[in-house]
Amino acid sequence: MTGSLVIAGLGPGAEALVTPEVTTALAAATDVVGYIPYVARVAPRPGLMLHPSDNRVELDRARAALEMAAAGKRVVVVSSGDPGVFAMASAVFEALEGREDWQALDIRVLPGITAMLAAAAAAGAPLGHDFCCINLSDNLKPWEVIETRLRHAARADFAMAFYNPRSASRPEGFAKALDVLRAECGADRLITFARAVSTPDQRIVTVTLGEALPEMADMRTVVIVGNSATRRVGRFVYSPRSAG
Amino acid sequence: MTGSLVIAGLGPGAEALVTPEVTTALAAATDVVGYIPYVARVAPRPGLMLHPSDNRVELDRARAALEMAAAGKRVVVVSSGDPGVFAMASAVFEALEGREDWQALDIRVLPGITAMLAAAAAAGAPLGHDFCCINLSDNLKPWEVIETRLRHAARADFAMAFYNPRSASRPEGFAKALDVLRAECGADRLITFARAVSTPDQRIVTVTLGEALPEMADMRTVVIVGNSATRRVGRFVYSPRSAG
Predict the structure, then answer these.
(1) What pLDDT sits at residue A162?
(2) Does the keyword S-adenosyl-L-methionine apply (chains A, B) (predicted)?
(3) What span, in angstroms and rounded, lies between the C-alpha atoms of A106 and A205?
(4) Closest CA–CA distance from residue B122 to any residue of chain A (Å)
(5) Distances (CA, A) of B125 to A237, B18, B40
(6) What is the third-level CATH fold of A116-238?
(7) ipTM greater than 0.95, yes or no?
(8) b/e per residue, A154-180, with b = 16+ CB within 10 A?
(9) Residue B220 — pLDDT band, cuts 50, 70, 90?
(10) Which residues of B touch A129 (CB under 8 A)?
(11) Considering only residues 149 to 168 of chain B, which have any Cβ-Cβ distance to chain A shorter than 8 Å?
């Protein structure tokens, strides 16, 4: 029996946004590994072992998945969104360091609809011109790095998508980010808060930076800040194709 | 009969990367509008009118689609990848400007797997940390804007994904971009050329900026430049989750 490891993106929440490629991989899996709420999205069936684990143990989870693949299992590591965007793929590759045995395994990454794309689609097309994507969680980097990136992004006139904008344990980071953005982009710049995108709880709110409050975001929110040309038309927000 | 307009992303090429949401919308359509090669990906059937059009007529195409929706048709505008990333969604919203009648229509954007996500998955996880996404085509913006964005992106230590890196009509732009990147990031920085991602022609090549040649990219190529921490492990390229 030859094992394999697939790192699969489940998309932002809706079943209709799971790619057929991922559905096929899940149907062939012997073992599914991932953070509890993502594993909960996989239907149980005979012959499939589910391995839900807590958050913040990504490297342990990756190693456990690789051990199972090395033992001959067909393992699928599930992430929400896209596994290559602030998710499990990097953790699996980190776990491969120094392990030539694991590097020789059949390992594939299956892309998914990452949250910012679904959020942008729900709002209109705010990422329709050059943009950047920043993880505002400071678990893995100092605030100074985040602030430097925000300032460069503003001066490059990128639209910006923010993941993990605000957690209960460090709510002040997002407030500081809004202060930097107001200073760099002005109070009239549009900002969209997209919560629980593609789920029944979806809520999309667009305001100006002058109106934005830190409390408008939580950990289920993706935040999109427009570039200098981003505008409203009807109920939509979009960034024109030209630099403006 | 109530018309509707759906702007749908077909993903980078493989059928297995088309979301069920998009498949459902196409099955319900009366009319499909888009650039010739994308409309060619939609299977003909009785009751479905296909409207392929040439490239660089995005705004005309958007207006024609809105006219049909206003006349009661169920219109799907197709883009490759994600319609909100350098594709048709922004053109449709531009066409809504000043047209309150069209703004009142049932208009939805359905996200898709954009090329950089499929390219990153095929290479490993080079977009696993903060990144930016730049359209290198200078059809819609001056070179100076592109150069400024490249320099800010490098100084922010973003990984970078480039769309439309090189066309026959303006091949010098990508050569200039490589020069800027070598000056800002050094010769050892990793760069991945991902051509025809998810199709039978897929080809993924990773080299250093010192080894990169403009000819390695064409208009079917997505280019991904790593950040300062991006590294190889086995046959993969990835950006670690921490700032390094």
Answers:
(1) 98
(2) yes
(3) 43
(4) 7
(5) 30, 21, 31
(6) 3.30.950
(7) yes
(8) bbbbbbbbbbbbbbeeeeebbebbbeb
(9) very high
(10) 86, 90, 135
(11) 149, 152-153, 155-158
pLDDT band at B2 (very low <50, low <70, confident <90, very high): confident
pLDDT value of position A80: 97
The two structure tokens encoding residue A158? 């990128």
Cα–Cα dist B219/A114, whole Å: 24
* Closest CA of chain B from A51, distance in Å: 22
Q: Is residue A244 predicted with pLDDT exceeding 60?
A: no
Q: Please give, rounded to a whole number of angstroms, the shortest distance from the CA of B155 to a CA of chain A.
A: 7
- Read off the pLDDT of residues A133-167 as tens digits, 9 standing for 90 and up: 999 987 778 899 999 999 999 999 999 999 999 87
Contacting A residues, span 113-132, partner chain B, CB-CB under 8 Å? 113-114, 117-118, 120-122, 124-132
Q: Is B170 on the interface with A (CB under 8 A)?
A: no
Which residues of chain B does A161 touch, with a Cβ-Cβ cutoff of 8 Å? none
Is residue B225's pLDDT more than 70?
Answer: yes
Diameter of chain B measured on Cα atoms: 60
Per-domain boundaries in chain B: 4-113, 116-238
Q: What is the pLDDT of residues B159-195, one digit of tens each?
A: 999 999 987 777 788 999 999 999 999 999 999 999 9
